[in-house]
Amino acid sequence: MAAHVQRLWPGGNVDELLAARLQMAISLGFHIVFACIGMVMPFLMAAAHWCWLKTNDRVWLELTKAWSRGVAIFFAVGAVSGTLLSFELGLLWPKFMEHAGPIFGLPFSWEGAAFFLEAIFLGMFLYGWNQLPRWLHWTTGVLVGLSGLASGILVVAANGWMNAPSGFRYENGVFFDIDPVAAMLNDAWFTQALHMTLAAFAATGFGVAGLHAALLLRHPGHPLHQKAIRVALPFAATAALLQPLSGDLSAKDIAERQPLKLAAAEALFETTRGAPLLIGGIPDMELREVHYAIELPYLLSFLAHSSFQAEVLGLDAFPEDEWPPVPLVHYAFQVMVGIGFVLAGLGAYYWYMAVRGRPFLDRFWFLAALSASAPLGFIAVEAGWIVTEVGRQPWIIYGVMKTADSLTEMPGIQYSLAFYVFAYLLLALLVAWLMKRQIAALESQLRVYP
Description:
mainly alpha, two-stranded antiparallel sheet, 10 strands
């Protein structure tokens, strides 16, 4: 990795650039988990709340309250990690923010408004029990979810601008004729927002279903865990089945806008007509070939350009000093796609059983599979962001500004990295402790159910 950075930044301080990129990667990797949960968990909470309002079944009420406490925990930690992330943009990449801030500041400002609305509605929901009319109280929960969803989409729109810069003219290092709306509605925002939203629903849905499946295995027949799975699985399964379609749209979009990223993801070293799709494989950067991969003939050409004989640009079509770290991007892409199909398989089985009216919560293997799937969606999300962010390197603004050119001149970035790693470890331990307490409290309620 150091050799790769040295090649991209000859004469620069490799340690500082690596530290800055590592700090940003850790921050994004930590925050994105809480962003996904914040986008989706309120909708699961509102669905359980709806069931209680319709049935007056006390189990639904207990489930809603349990999930609302989880939403509050994840919201608080997500707010802290997101605030740290916003400081990092100015701390580590001041030249980037100097030019990019006025251009893509609109979605960030709207994201801030959405975040404040989310906080207000969450407060109303948490403290509105027996204070607000029942259906108005439920509405505040839905609004928490809608605000969180809007917040996530707006942030992805800003990231999409980094992949498909628009809304300005650039000459001689000067940005002018700025159009913030055109920048926000860039060519990448829709496919990225769709893919990220579906990924959030799949990851969080299977995470929740997997957690309650594990608890159901410990306490067979427990109605609260059964109801929790019945709420979470429809969201998760639907998102997982739609995700391959979203991925196809993203692949076609990247093939047109960022063909180098696609070449790195597939480790396609040579421009090829009728290119095969690789499953697995170990890229060999010296021999410029991939070992041990399964090849599906012509399929990459079809997925990228809707033609089995279409030409797909390989890494050889681009200057080597603009290549991203090919092995890392390739492995991340394989992990993302592989997990996506595993979750889609679980989703297909759920809908098959649900549509046919067959019981599935008494099948040990299915509950065990759900339990094992709990972290998979978040692993896929992390892998997908590696493809998106690392696959864009060496550009921080694709085709306009390189990452190395936007790095701060402040020495001692390694100390900043150490502080942020400590902060995120502390937050992770705090969340783990709080969630353990919540699960213990939930299990202590077993006695109130038949």
